[in-house]
Amino acid sequence: MDLPVDEWKSYILQKWSLLPTAVQLTIATAETLSDVFLLSSSLLQPEDEMFLKSLSRGYFVGKDPAAPLFYREEGNKKFQEKDYTGAAVLYSKGVSHSRPHTEDIALCYANRSAALFHLGQFEACLEDIGRAQLHGYPERLLPKMLLRKAECLVALGRPQEASQTITDLESNLTSQASLALSPFQTLQRNLHHLKMKVRDKEAVMETFPAVLANALENMDLREESEQVSSASSSVSLGTDPSKGRCLVATKDVLPGELLVKEDAFVSVLIPGEVPPLPHGLGSRWDTRISNGDLYCHRCLKHTLATVPCDGCSYAKYCSLECLRRAWELYHSAECALGGLLLTLGIFCHVALRLTLVARFQDFGKVIRKLCDEINSRAVCVPESKDPVKTLSNGLGERETSGTAVETPIPGCGVNGKYENNYNAVFNLLPQTENHSPEHKFLCALSVSALCKQLQAAGFQALTAGLKSSKLKAAVAPDLCPDLHVWGVALLRHMLQLQCNAQAITTIQQTGSKEGIITSSRQVRLATGVFPVISLLNHSCSPNTSVSFVGTVATVRASQHIRRGQEILHCYGPHVSRLGIAARQQKLKSQYFFNCSCLACQTEAHATAAAPRWEAFCCSSCRALLQGGDVLSCSSGSCTEAVSRDHLAARLRDLQRQTGLARELLRSGELEKAIQQLSGCQRDAESFLWAEHSVLGEIEDDLAQAYAALGDWKKSAAHLQKSLTVVEARHGPSSVEMGHELFKLAQILFNGFEVPEALSTIQKAETVLAVHCGPCSDEIQELQQMKSCLLDLPPVPVGPSA
Ligand SMILES: *[C@@H]1O[C@H](CO)[C@@H](O)[C@H](O)[C@H]1NC(C)=O
Ligand SMILES: *[C@@H]1O[C@H](CO)[C@@H](O)[C@H](O)[C@H]1NC(C)=O
Ligand SMILES: *[C@@H]1O[C@H](CO)[C@@H](O)[C@H](O)[C@H]1NC(C)=O
Ligand SMILES: CC(=O)N[C@H]1CO[C@H](CO)[C@@H](O)[C@@H]1O
Ligand SMILES: CC(=O)N[C@H]1CO[C@H](CO)[C@@H](O)[C@@H]1O
Ligand SMILES: [Zn+2]
Ligand SMILES: [Zn+2]
Ligand SMILES: [Zn+2]
Ligand SMILES: [Zn+2]
């Protein structure tokens, strides 16, 4: 996903292994990225490019004129099954394969408007009706669609426009008497009904925003730091000789305080785990739904009503505005490269987009520095082996008598401020010396092939206006000089991304259909570059939490941070999810450092006991079992001893049994599921420590099953037990705890246990506001539950027919 597809990866590694040792050595010891790029790209052969092209063809991103009809028919089937979401997505796929101003696109939009109408998304429905008309919806079908439009306007409480639509409809009807009249009469009755009610509604709507008002507090930085853009004044940029750049608290910070709110410099949506279609066989049309169908490719907003790029079937947006902005900034260059970019992976795509977006910033300046760099290397012996240093020294751009004045902190502008811009991105560390030579070779060849495609697509214009004359002709034997510079920049970004790419995540609700409680899971939606957040150093037990709304990341304190302490976040391996050895290994291989965070220090000194959530208990006295291959009871008077293998086998068996129970739960056989789960629970309690995570999962499943049966009391009792396990493992203010409290709140709410529900809502709100932000869906839902319980005026959902 991040790196190129496996076929290309193994092809290049094979190529690398066949290189003469002397060539390998030259690449491995090359002093600058420019040299790595030059040496590698001179080895890219036409047959390599052919192979890459054949892989790219597996991703079909063009428009297929036969596809709209196919998707419309598939959508109609889903519609019949009342799966309106599924239908809307299939109609969207039809839209994305249609050319503008064709009957195909108009029909797809019109069909989608019907699905959106049934989903209650009236605004989106109206927009689709407008789009259908704009693209030439056939006159003969118009009355049916106008009827839907009027109904939407009625539902939205816009009676004047509804009457106007009715008038249009009537004049259309007199010219073609094909439409059955009964739905039309129903509509007129609804309209009449609505007109009566409209004034009362308006009064209710005015009271509504007050309920959510306090959720909107604390959404913006109260005061921005003068030194770091997108950060609050509680944050300053430190430079510790041993740690490099880092963020430090300038005053005492309380849990929940917003520290950084940064929009991604660029982000690239991850299309989802949909493998390419094997060429030549099977259907070329994919009916599976992926994140690429559900989120705007620019702003990452969730939407069922996407508008596609006019040129390809891949890029889709939430609005014409996003479509236009994406085209201007980057998609006009990327559109023709869709399949290649999917083959080369997200990092390559992000690298390209960084340079494309940079054209509108100070890229020219950076490119000139790169040129100088390449030039000076060709002419004289470089003073510094570190191109970053050489570059950043000059970036301050205050040349006094021919010598560059060193800017104090890399990435800062002339004014000394660190900002979310290309200069800061460019100065993120590429860790050139830490990457393996094969990896650099893979990245360089991928980037080189991409450059050739850019060139073939006529993109000399990309670097127009740059002083390419500064480059010696000898530097780039094959590529034009501009593209060579472009290639070096792309390679640099690709290497930077391994340590600096930030996963943009979202919470997806996975609710069972019949049960009312929903679980949520975090999914990775996109990869982004956030130069300010990249300044945060890692801790396995961090004092902040990061969350996202679209492409905007917010970092909040999750604990009290004292003035002068470093602000830390977790790069992935968190203390509550991985043991110390696995964490150290991951951080070392991906980020190239030995973690010495507080958690790692304390754990390294503690005895290497297994964590409590993996611990076993004595079957005779329930005390904790301890030891290596043979575990013995920790209670002094007991002599019980068991082999670890035996316990591991029992655990595997238990997990098989709970797997079966989960299948029963999924297929709705609730009584059987409960019976099976109760058996698992008894078994688990006989040998697992009370805080073992498997025991917690069983309790959680039992809670789900009872909730589905509507037995809220039992459901809540089981969830309480699951909650204690989650708390022991992840801590009382962790995001996992927040989600578990959210579930408990839903159950208590449904069971109408008012005081317990209110106190649980309160706890869930406190925890989730830190991790998900005070405006997240969960918080809003909690607030609605609270206002319901407190008997506030109900939140109007719009006048339903
Ligand atoms: C989709 O459009 C076609 C053509 O107008 C129509 O026959 C069909 O009923 C529509 N499907 C839905 C679900 O509205
Ligand atoms: C049908 O309604 C549309 C308005 O949506 C109008 O532009 C068109 O002229 C009408 N057609 C007839 C025949 O009245
Ligand atoms: C990490 O520790 C190992 C062994 O303790 C050492 O060899 C290595 O140089 C260290 N790496 C870094 C980046 O400090
Ligand atoms: C990304 C980053 O800056 N990591 C640094 C965090 O701090 C340790 C030392 O404590 C450095 O080795 C890392 O490079
Ligand atoms: C609880 C915890 O780990 N808090 C830490 C937050 O980060 C600072 C480092 O700057 C630590 O000192 C705190 O202990
Ligand atoms: Zn958008
Ligand atoms: Zn496109
Ligand atoms: Zn650590
Ligand atoms: Zn015992």
Automatic annotation (TrEMBL):
The keyword Ubl conjugation does not apply. Keywords: Cytoplasm, Metal-binding, Methyltransferase, Nucleus, S-adenosyl-L-methionine, Transferase, Zinc, Zinc-finger. It comes from the Eukaryota. Coiled coil: none annotated. It is found in: Cytoplasm; Nucleus. It catalyses: L-lysyl-[protein] + S-adenosyl-L-methionine = N(6)-methyl-L-lysyl-[protein] + S-adenosyl-L-homocysteine + H(+). One of its GO terms (cellular component) is cytoplasm. Pfam families: SET, zf-MYND. Gene3D superfamilies: 6.10.140.2220, SET domain (2.170.270.10), Tetratricopeptide repeat domain (1.25.40.10). GO terms for molecular function: histone deacetylase binding; protein-lysine N-methyltransferase activity; zinc ion binding. Residues 296-335 form the MYND-type domain. Protein-lysine N-methyltransferase. Monomethylates PRMT5, modulating its transcriptional activity. May also act as a histone methyltransferase. Plays a critical role in cardiac development. Acts as a key epigenetic regulator of gene expression during cardiac development via its dual activities as a methyltransferase and negative regulator of HDAC1. This is Protein-lysine N-methyltransferase SMYD4. It comes from Oryctolagus cuniculus (Rabbit).
